[in-house]
């Protein structure tokens, strides 16, 4: 099992639609660590850490997001794992 860390930036209608809470719920359900936050430019940024296949599954889910969201673009950047243990919403 390979542990990976991915930084994901999501653009579209992703703020004010419970996107961060949805990401936290999904990530915790999958056993992922990391964080999610709103950015000043209207995007949402998330750091996902866990087993490679599970991180990929989460990224696939983020392509559509929660019911009120509209995802226009999703960028993924690989990074070295930090061995994070929990998932948080950053403010």
From TrEMBL:
It catalyses: an acyl phosphate + H2O = a carboxylate + phosphate + H(+). Residues 5-91 form the Acylphosphatase-like domain. The keyword Coiled coil does not apply. The keyword Hydrolase applies. PROSITE patterns: ACYLPHOSPHATASE_1, ACYLPHOSPHATASE_2, ACYLPHOSPHATASE_3. It comes from the Bacteria. Its EC number is 3.6.1.7. SUPFAM superfamilies: Acylphosphatase/BLUF domain-like. It is an enzyme of class 3 (hydrolase). GO terms for molecular function: acylphosphatase activity. Keywords: Hydrolase. Pfam families: Acylphosphatase. The active site is at 20, 38. Belongs to the acylphosphatase family. This is Acylphosphatase. The lineage of its organism: Bacteria, Pseudomonadati, Pseudomonadota, Alphaproteobacteria, Sphingomonadales.
């Amino acid at each position: 099992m390979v542990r990976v860390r991915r930084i994901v930036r999501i653009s579209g209608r992703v703020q004010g639609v419970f996107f961060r809470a949805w990401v936290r719920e999904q990530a915790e359900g999958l056993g992922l660590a990391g964080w999610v936050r709103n950015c000043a430019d209207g995007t949402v940024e998330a750091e996902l850490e866990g087993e490679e296949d599970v991180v990929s599954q989460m990224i696939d889910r983020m392509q559509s997001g929660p019911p009120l969201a509209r995802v226009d673009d999703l960028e993924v950047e690989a990074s070295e794992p930090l061995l994070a243990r929990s998932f948080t919403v950053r403010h």
